[in-house]
């Protein structure tokens, strides 16, 4: 399963004479697990923003990635072919990148993270973006470019902290811690893992204190402080044991065994390493077992039990060869070389070193090359070949200089990165503040505009309401006036109106001594019309009568209905004969009313009593005179006009 191993770690390990590879493998698995947990948590917990970026199937993949990363890769690739949604595609690339990191295939991890990052933007999908960025940082760490990964991890940490995205934060912390460790900044790594440890105690993250305990233990082990590493390994052990997480358990027992050996607890240490190897074989982690063999062999070499040690190393070498783990092959070959040297098998010893040298190709194996050259030089010196030994020492001096330069430039890169990140953060904070201020201003302006708009609308509504009320009132008043002054059926004046008008015109006529003629009119046998043809027909006759009167007389003539079928007409500035002529013409016209209303069978005729102002009579007297004349007209047979006196 292990095809490639982290070269950068080996550089540091070699320098310090400490074999970190086993731990780094352990941390790769652990990181993969943490990533899974982190991603899974991203699906589950609502406080992680923009969670809808994850496809529904992500949960299953993220669970499986810890045990079977290759299966997850196959399944995700199949889904990726079908998927069209950009954010889902990006999410799948994030899962793929992490799965490849779990398989320690950093170049593929890097490629998938980049593909995902090409699909999202930091402003639109910040959570997804930073998850991909941390995945890329992890792949960069594995590719021997921790300096480049540092910036991404730090940015993600800052963002996650600011937005309280705890899962992302704990994941970013774990990756950032490993990056610091790769860069030999152990204080930073320790501080980061301890922060992660505290964060995980809040129970808001699926990453548990036990996970961070194993990372902290790793740093102490790296710093050759096994007494400090031991309690943390123990805590991690308890956690993995309780949760039956076998791979991490095997790795943690390995850590315990190594720390115990370092502390001189030989039997305990060897027993733990043996247990770790057994557990690793149980779960098919052959390399896990090989790491234990290698450490056990080292202990046996120190004790002079060379043949037992050689047996372990031979097994370990076969496993590392199968896995193409060049770094560990070199380590094992150096251990075998130590045995051969002790047994004075110089030729065999040289062959082993040549084999190791052939494997140590590339810049990342610089520390290995130096170690091999040193061994070779010692060997040549033992064989009295001082010239060759001297040449090798010269070469080593140049190699060490190169290594120093490399380390310095890496440190510089890290410092530069840290500075750039901090600068970027400060700039972001400033921009955020400006944005907030602008947003507040905009909000206030919008509020004010809304208030103004609301007031204007309210005023408009009030105006419309008032106008509506005014018009309604006016119409109502006009209607009331019309009802009071105009008879609804005939369109003539009402009794009240025509009598008031008569009083008024009578006074004018008396004052100005102008003629005024008054007539009382009554439809003949109207009861009969009602009785024989219905009340509606009677109404139609009255209506036609009114219309005819309005059309026949002048506008200055006053026409009013004073009873059911009784009418008072008076004619200002008109003398009796003139009025008589008008009334006669009108009464003749009334005979045509039956035709007007489509009732030709009817007989409509009018009787009228007419009188003229001759003295200073009162309205009452004039009315009485007209009434008397009308009575006479009725008595004389109706359909006629009688003048009085
Ligand atoms: N259709 C209708 N009939 C009305 C209205 N006002 C009064 N009348 C009727 O008019 C009739 C008047 O009858 P009378 O007073 O006996 O007078 P008349 O039948 O015309 O007889 P003379 O006046 O003697 O010729 C009554 O039957 C009333 O009911 C009205 O607005 N519409």
From TrEMBL:
Coiled coil: none annotated. GO terms for biological process: cell adhesion involved in single-species biofilm formation; negative regulation of bacterial-type flagellum-dependent cell motility. The chain crosses the membrane at residues 451-472. Residues 514-645 form the GGDEF domain. GO terms for molecular function: diguanylate cyclase activity. The keyword Transmembrane helix applies. Keywords: Membrane, Transmembrane, Transmembrane helix. SMART domains: GGDEF (SM00267). Its EC number is 2.7.7.65. Its cofactor is Mg(2+). GO terms for cellular component: plasma membrane. InterPro entries: Diguanylate_Cyclase, GGDEF_dom, Nucleotide_cyclase, Rev_trsase/Diguanyl_cyclase, TPR-like_helical_dom_sf. It is an enzyme of class 2 (transferase). It comes from the Bacteria. It catalyses: 2 GTP = 3',3'-c-di-GMP + 2 diphosphate. This is diguanylate cyclase.
